[in-house]
Amino acid sequence: MMPVRRDLQFKLAEVDLKTWNANGPLVSAYMNTLSLFFPDGERFFIHSLRHYRDQITDPELKAQVTGFIGQEAMHGREHEEYNERLAEQGMPAEALVQSIFKIIEAAKRLPEPAQLSITIALEHFTAIYGDLLLRKPELIEGSNPTMKAMWQWHALEETEHKAVAFDVYSKVVGSDLRAYLLRTSTLVVITSIFLSLIAAAMARMLIADKTTKKGPREWAKFAWFMLGPSGGLRGIALPWLDYFKPGFHPWDHDNRHFLNQIEAINAKYGVSAKKAPKLAAAA
Ligand SMILES: [Fe+2]
Ligand SMILES: [Fe+2]
User: Fold this and answer.
1) What pLDDT does residue 273 have?
2) Residue numbers of the domain that contains 122
3) 61-70 residue pLDDT tens
4) Which residues are found with C-beta within 5 Å of the ion, ligand 2?
């Protein structure tokens, strides 16, 4: 699997970000909160991989790392735009992003293998969240089409590059008992930190939003989204546990069949796809 850097741009200025998700404003707030973590989080992933790039001798893995960096850079750019629009629409995105930045800067002081183990733990999260969104399109069906395309694009590319950081970890840190204990203990610690930070950030987003309705009906829809049969937590619990299998590899769960959806999104939102008709017309 060779990740491809695609330059997609989603214009979000017209989107009402408080209510974009068809499952209600609380689900919108939840996914908006996730977006706050992406730009600096993904730059951290790039940082942790770059440190080891020169130690990778396998040309295919080296090319995959380049593709990974290209994809995460594009995700970071688009989520930065998303977060700016959140701030414009009155949400405390700027302050929250600054707090997230400080936490990530502190993580950069950890030993390099620990930083890479954080990256592969969070890449496990993005892979299983991405897979859930692709398996259960009802989680996003009927939502604003631009937002839907953006989240699907991100889910698809997270799938495409899900094993890259893991393969680097296996090469440079290893796959012995010590490497296993580092990666699994990191997942446990990171899960508790990450979920607490999301809950705290979402609470601040909701407190700041005085205009959106947040009654029992909205909370019931949010609970159904998280805990129902297609729900966010139920859908990731078992895949999360797979990480503890001693011989685990992200492609043990082969979901590459979803990737044939990427080109349709790229054709609509890709920068080169948009430029092509103009060039053809000019010629
Ligand atoms: Fe990403
Ligand atoms: Fe990723």
Assistant:
1) 56
2) 25-282
3) 999 999 999 9
4) 126, 158
